Amino acid sequence: QAQLVESGGGLVQPGGSLRLSCVASGFTFDTHAMHWVRQPPVKGLECVATINGVGTWSNHAGDVKGRFTISRDNAKNTLYLQMNSLKPENTAVHFCGKGPISLQRDDYLGQGTQVTVSS
Q: What is the pLDDT of residues 36-45, one digit of tens each?
């Protein structure tokens, strides 16, 4: 059974950085594209970034391009999201997922990791 466990969130001041991690188990990690989505307060899920199975291609949402970087370490079955120059509007619960991006909350079984950007 596939499991994804997110971590690395926290409270950070505007302009700060965080690195999120997602440890995968229960499936062959390097054969699946992976992605991050986020859920801001009182809003639905939003795409953040996606990466292919071998880590040679990625795509980032327009508002995070140049500030966030998705990456993966297939030897460690771990997905990352490096978040730099954080803004208050980046406050959200972040979830990782495998395969095609879904914007259905029920498709994400993990608890996610909370990122709060505030002074």
A: 999 999 999 9
